[in-house]
Amino acid sequence: MVQLTINGKQIEAPEGTTVLRAAELAGIHIPTLCNHKELTPYGGCRLCIVEVEGMRVPMASCTLPVGKGMVIRTETSEIRKSREFILSMLFSERNHFCPFCQVSGGDCELQNAAYHEEMTHWPIQPGWNNYKVDTTHPYFVLDNNRCILCRRCTRACGELVGNFTLSVAERGAASMIVADTDVPLGESTCIKCGTCVQVCPTGALIDRTSAYQAHDDQLDEIKSVCIGCSVGCSIKIMVRDNRIIRIEGDWESQVNQGLLCEHGRYDPITESRRRITTPQIRKNGKLEPVSWEEALSTVADKIQSLAASKHGIAAIASTRLTAETLAVFKDLFVDKLHGTSVTSIEEGAPTASVTRFAENHEAFEGKLDILRNADTVLCIGANINRSHMVAGFMFKRNLSKGTRLINIDPESSELDYLANIALKTKPGSDLALIKGLQAIIVREGLGRSPLKLTDAGKLIKEAVSASGISHEELLQTAQLLAHSISPVILFGKGVTAQRDEKLIEEIYHLAVLIGAVDDERHGLLSIKGESNSLVATLLGMDTAFTLDGQQAVYIALGDDYVSKSLMERLSKSPYLVAQTCYESRLTEQADVILPVTIWAEQEGHYINLDGRTQAAQKAIDPPEGVRDNVSVLNEIATRAKMTIQPDWHKAILARKSSVALN
Ligand SMILES: Nc1nc2c(c(=O)[nH]1)N[C@H]1C(S)=C(S)[C@@H](COP(=O)(O)OP(=O)(O)OC[C@H]3O[C@@H](n4cnc5c(=O)[nH]c(N)nc54)[C@H](O)[C@@H]3O)O[C@H]1N2
Ligand SMILES: Nc1nc2c(c(=O)[nH]1)N[C@H]1C(S)=C(S)[C@@H](COP(=O)(O)OP(=O)(O)OC[C@H]3O[C@@H](n4cnc5c(=O)[nH]c(N)nc54)[C@H](O)[C@@H]3O)O[C@H]1N2
Ligand code: SF4
Ligand code: SF4
Ligand code: SF4
Ligand code: FES
Ligand SMILES: [Mo]
Question: Which ligand is closest to the CA of 394, given by its number?
Fold first, then answer.
């Protein structure tokens, strides 16, 4: 610890801390603009200047490390005068004619900083530039006229997201935020995650969808969980008058630390499907609105009459539903109604093989965080650029700092351009390939732990012929893996959907061999499906959905989508009950429609891909007529004279999880 004095107060701060951070820890406020807790200090705006005894000029506290015995003053008249001057320069450099700006009136950090200094005007003539406003992006607008060149956006895009789309062109007063080589944002490499907008302190980057709809202090902030994929990013749902205005990443979150992808931030805002708000029953071939009472008793009678028969009822549920809903669903259709083929719409493709392997290997998977410090990532059968983007950010941002990437996928993707080695293998050849990698590592004596293999030479030959890659590529891959210090193996549905437990076992052995997994490290991780993928598999709902003569199918779709191939199977059922939110090809064919709440209209729990349980709060009220997913299932059970067991915590403990639950 280092002792120093700030404004006469004796304080202690850990060595290497900045003066700004030390002041914060001691409850002393220093105004800032370019500084952001998640970004590398840059020292650009100079608003955070302080007086340091013995130094000639004021120093930027955000980049100044604490020193023993430092004597610092943050509120001298000199410092206050300098701060006002700095703000005056910032205001006058470009168009900060605030009344016309969307963030004016409480949401702009520049304006707020000026009010904090009790400024009412600035004495410098503004430079009336007229820079072109970039409106080509679907989700936000870039207005360089409002930009203060704090570079939070460029740092966020590079350091956090690993996308490096934004940068600064030109020098000095002509500096301009540009995308790529100064192309329109809408045509750039931007992956639309919106992180730059979330960090921008001014009106230079503004949201198209939420602009001019509310000031921050008029918004209710509800903490929740993104249901877009199994990363389970923490979100803040910003609500006004029962409407979701905007979604923000939660900087305090342990999972995503503020980041979101396009799906998490914008999909809920751009939702365009048509909502259903009245229960309906097919009568004489036509769907007709009915009361909830009629709909629920019709369904209850039907399923009760089928409960006894051998091929009675099949049921399928979305993995976007809450743990509470899935547990009740499972109890009703498996334990009480003895349905045949009760599963989730993922059918266990991303989870069944890892969960089966876990039966004998406990929690063999690691935690997401391990990706942040990996020196090598082996990505196999995972479309991390599309399907679990925020997990991808965790290592993509380190590729420019030396982290190496190996991508094994039969299809090409943008990930290949970032990869040190991209292997285009034949589909389904992964088992042979993994065994071949093991064999080379063992034969070259590069393994971290012993692994018994019979006939390494044969395994290597088989790997080459099965996968279609060259011996040279195989050797390079093996060497890169074996020479890594903190390797991580990340696999996805390309691997898991092969439903081969042996493949998971050999990936595990490879992980041990290269030191990705040992007593201390758990550098093996599978990405899963939707938000409650893991819950569905722990409840045993991870088998293929096959109909053979069932008299009815109950589908709890919630706000999820239904694919053509599932629809083809569903349409073979003589009777179809759809618990769903939106009109779709499913509702066109259903015999009964039960309209339910969407994700933001209900509360409940989700367990993400690395076993973290998270609570989602209800953010908005549902439209009139719509009922909660859990209560609909409960009502049906009650009418069918069944008591369902609602304890989902207990229900998921029936199986071992591939990843430790916490
Ligand atoms: N053999 C085999 N079976 C599988 C799997 C497998 O890998 N192999 N995977 C399993 C898994 S994990 C899943 S999740 C399921 C379902 O997985 P898929 O069958 O791949 O279905 P999805 O692609 O999820 O989407 C369903 C449909 O919703 C529509 N849709 C999706 N997003 C949007 C959108 O934003 N807007 C609009 N308008 N439409 C949209 C699309 O038309 C799409 O056809 O299949 C499961 N079954
Ligand atoms: N944006 C977005 N995100 C999503 C979803 C979405 O629809 N959109 N869906 C969610 C859901 S339901 C799921 S299940 C997950 C799925 O997320 P992922 O696990 O990433 O699954 P896929 O997107 O199907 O990508 C699998 C990759 O494996 C490759 N592959 C196919 N066959 C083989 C093979 O034999 N060997 C190897 N090594 N690779 C192979 C494919 O080319 C593909 O690149 O994503 C979730 N996240
Ligand atoms: S939206 Fe994301 S990828 Fe696009 S410029 Fe902003 S930070 Fe970069
Ligand atoms: S666009 Fe916003 S975040 Fe980026 S440099 Fe300008 S003011 Fe800063
Ligand atoms: S990575 Fe997944 S959980 Fe995170 S914001 Fe994107 S879709 Fe949502
Ligand atoms: S906050 Fe320190 S220089 Fe900008
Ligand atoms: Mo999925």
Answer: 5
